Amino acid sequence: GGSDEAKRRAGERAAAAVEDGFVVGLGTGSTTAHAIRAIGRAVDDGLEIRGIPTSFQSRQLALEVGVPLTDLDAVDGVDLAIDGADQVVDDRDAAAFGALIKGGGAAHAREKLVDTAADRFVVVADPSKLTDRLERSVPVAVLPDAHSVVADRIRALDGEPTLRDAERKDGPVVTDNGNLVLDCAFGRIDDPDELATRLSGIPGVVEHGLFVGVADATYIGTDDGVEVRRY
Ligand code: DER
């Protein structure tokens, strides 16, 4: 991944968009972690906000830095969601400009719920995430019982599914919601919207990592500043 300095710049720029009284979606991953820490500092300085975490990790970090927490049932809406991504389409001429692949952290089911519930969803990224076309594997969260059947359906879509193994646990990664993850390689994805629709229609798929037409902006941390893309 990219430099931590670039990630920090992106995260802190996004945190600066958080206004008093906001309900903020708190994304998952190392880039958003910088935003959460910056929000924690703003809360220490008197900012009054409530955060909705998108994973066990973002909840733990928010508690650690003192961001007051709430949930979707307890609020009338989400003003701003801040989250990272694994890939961001940065070709202005592409129909998929601003489309994302997310799910590297296996948190994409709750991320997509919170990110799309927000009035405004901004991505924080370093330059290594930018691409002309989406081409990474698409993480697909599946009901545990469904992983073999869904894998067959992915192959029928010319994808190559791999059940995501855990590192420090025997067996597969299990998400915060108790699901498994198939990382599905499709090569270059020229029409992510069409693939997203197909993936969503497969029984047993809980959520996939294609976020198309969802992000409102991306803050890209560079070595000497922040670039902003608006979609
Ligand atoms: O899981 C996700 O979608 C996360 O946002 C993640 O993949 C981005 O993580 P990073 O900011 O640590 O690269």
Estimated structural class: alpha/beta
Q: How helix-rich are the residues, as a percent range? A: 25-40%
Q: Tell me about the biggest sheet?
A: 6 strands, mixed
Question: Could you name the ranges where pLDDT drops below 50 across 5 or more consecutive residues?
Answer: none
Q: What Rg is obtained from the alpha carbons, in whole angstroms?
A: 17 Å
Protein name: Ribose-5-phosphate isomerase A
GO cellular component, one term: cytosol
EC number: 5.3.1.6
Pfam families: Rib_5-P_isom_A
Question: Would you write up a description of this structure?
Answer:
- Helix content is 29%, strand content 27%.
- It is α/β, with parallel strands linked by helices and 231 residues long.
- The strands form three sheets. It has a six-stranded mixed beta sheet with strand order 2-1-3-6-13-14. The protein has a four-stranded mixed beta sheet with strand order 7-4-5-12, covered by helices on one side. Strands 9-10-8-11 form a four-stranded antiparallel beta sheet.
- Helix 2 packs parallel to helix 3.
- The longest helix is centred in the first third of the chain and has 15 residues, at 30-44.
- The protein starts with a helix and ends with a strand.
- The mean pLDDT is 97.
- D-4-phosphoerythronic acid binds at residues 1, 27-31, 83-86, 102-105, 107-108, 111.
- It comes from Natrinema salaciae.
- This is Ribose-5-phosphate isomerase A.
- The active site is at residue 111.
